[in-house]
Amino acid sequence: MPNKTQSAVNFEDRNMSQHKLDTLYLMRLLVCIVRFGSFARAAEHLGITPSKASKDLRYLEQSLSTVLLNRTTRRLQLTDAGELTYRQADQMLALHEQLLDGLQNRRECLSGELRITAPMLWGEVMLTPLLLKFRQQHPSVRLVTDFSNRTSDLLRDNIHVAFRSTELNREPYLARFIAKDEMVLCASKAYMSDKSTLCRPEELHQHSLITRCTDYSRHERWTLMDKGKELHMDVAGELAFSHKQAIYAAMQQGFGIAILPRYLVADELLAGTVVEVLPDFSPKGASFYALYTQRRAESALVTHFIDFVIAEMAARPAFDAA
């Protein structure tokens, strides 16, 4: 006689075997066999072999402890239990299709309110066109957006999505990668036209620099990457501004070399009116993430919106979303 351990194992094996095949698949198999009146035609429709169709139907009958089909050489005939199971299976499949249609309609007809925050410059340049496109596709969604460089508390401020250039170990929220926040050391073609090509970072001190000021200081520490290693340089700008837009304007007009987001100067780099300086020593960048909390009521809308932003960013060659 088998011992208790063997009996327990056999019970577990039988219990596990009942979950090997998907219930919806088995219901669809039964419905197809009945409608086609043939194992072979049903199997062809489902993309399986006739032998698998026959084996899986036997599995269904065993799991229900009843015979569903009487098989003869000429025809298949439903038993009474098979007739009941067939009708219930047909209804189950119809309900499943309705569920899928409902979810699809929900995705296509999103509604509700999204409260979003993003850094000012990135939000204005990169995110605004996407918000307008998203609104065109989903006119029932209300978008309330704050472009600000302050760090918001998503729960306290009741924000659904916060876009940040950040390091994840500093964030207590759920996060989705959006794109690289790549920086570029650049100058206008006009500024560089009568200058020799720079070869080493130390040569930057011989040039007019445009820095970002903090507390009215023109001094800034630039971090350049030298074959994966960080190279720190303390620089002082001939011009210093607290906002990147002002730095961008000064660089465009030929006042010197600056560090700016690549997305901001991508068109000028492509056109050749702005040139990259020291391309082998690119400034250290970061990554943009969409930060959010798990809220049951708005989760579908938030997920769809973030998916949309990721897809749109990936389609923009100027902003690497690898």
TrEMBL record:
Transmembrane segments: none annotated. Residues 86-113 form a coiled coil. Keywords: Coiled coil, DNA-binding, Transcription, Transcription regulation. This is HTH-type transcriptional regulator DmlR. Belongs to the LysR transcriptional regulatory family. Residues 22-79 form the HTH lysR-type domain.
